[in-house]
Amino acid sequence: MKTEKLFKTPLTPAQISNSELNLREFKEGRTELASSPRRIVFELTNRCNFQCIMCGREAVNFKTKDLPVDVVKACEPFYGQTEEVTLHGWGEGTLHPKTAEVLEYLNSFPMLRKYFVTNGSTMPRIMGPIFAHHVDLVAVSLDGATPETNNGIRKGGDFNREVASIRLLMEEKAKRGANYPYVNLVFTAMARNIHELPKMVELARELGLPEVKVVYLTIFNEALAAESLVDRQQLVMEHFGKAMELAEKYGINLKLPEIQGAGEAGLMKHKTCPFPWRDLYIGSDGYVRPCQSSADKLLHIGGYGSFEAVWNSEPMQKMRSTVNDPEAMPAGCANCYHSSCANWNLSTSFVQLGKKFAPDWMADKGKAAAAVETLKAAVE
Fold first, then answer.
1. Are 146 and 199 in contact, with CB atoms under 8 Å apart?
2. Per-residue pLDDT tens over the stretch 96-141
3. 351/357 Cα distance (integer angstroms)
């Protein structure tokens, strides 16, 4: 199943054994797990230097927070079994003042895959650490194949600057003869830019990138209603088809979401979700959430003495028992818009008007500081 998969890189015997056990426990519906998370997601920061028109952060009151590096280090007991650490969330993770330190620390664990998503603006500063600390995957968000389209969507972005940075990254990779990082483009498809998707494939070819990933726009406010692709299947299929032809011609991996109404999930509220088994998502405010796209807060790490305790805590076990139950699943799951698990047959996956789609950001510095001290003591 697509939602169960992670990027493939060589794994240690311990990682392979853990992943096989984790998948068995997921398929058996276990709530208390003997396996460790296959992936840990750290929202290093919720700060961002862009104001993209489609981003939900523009529709809520954000209180900016940076995740303490010691939280990353407190997950150390997992790193011998975990496959991947992803740096991703509601902000531009590379704005964290200690991003390089985090990457250096994670690189001390052999075969632990490192992945981050970026708007590309900080590439000149982060390029050195990418190679020094063996970042395996870098996803760069671009929402147009021309400056006019991209910059009109990604306010604060500069298409020419970001493309130049990607080109430098790929040139440096070639100069070093390195087989990392795997770099792809991520494109948010909406009414105003979908006609440029074929050009995005052309751009990937020009830059020497192996992949373009497409996600649908989900709207959070009325101002973007005209940009939604809900019930516009003919338009979507026209441009998806053109892009697919080019991708096949050039050998580009084009990842497309399902066409509305053609998915196998029927009327399910979301596809079968493996995240509470596979992933541990830690927000920049110290709250564990089901995933990046859920507003639901399961627990604060300050209430637990270790991440092993967090992993099999009562809230996590409850999440595993309810996430795929249409009658009992949390509100955020019932309104799922996550690019991997959303049921794109449903209009609610495209439109979140009136829904709670982002977490409440509270000023709880004291709670977070206390949590860090507790977790540091547990590791030491």
1. yes
2. 999 999 999 999 998 999 999 999 999 999 999 999 999 999 999 9
3. 11
Q: Which two tokens stand for residue 353?
A: 């008007």
Contacts 24+ apart (CB under 8 A), 174-182: 174/208, 176/131, 178/131, 180/134, 180/135, 180/136, 181/130, 181/135, 181/136, 181/137, 181/138, 182/7, 182/136, 182/137, 182/138, 182/210, 182/211
Q: Which amino acid is at 132?
A: A
CA 361 to chain CA centroid, Å, is 19
Q: Which residues pair with 216 in a beta bridge?
A: 189
Tokens found for residue 373: 């001290």
Centroid of chain to Cα 258: 18
Question: Could you check whether the bond before residue 181 is cis, i.e. omega within 30 degrees of 0?
Answer: yes
What does the pLDDT look like over 203-259, one tens digit per residue?
Answer: 999 999 999 999 999 998 898 999 999 999 999 999 999 999 999 999 999 999 999
Cα distance between residue 71 and residue 76, in whole Å: 9
Show the low-confidence residues of the chain (pLDDT under 50): 379
Q: What is the pTM of this model?
A: 0.93
Whether 50 contacts 154, CB under 8 Å: yes
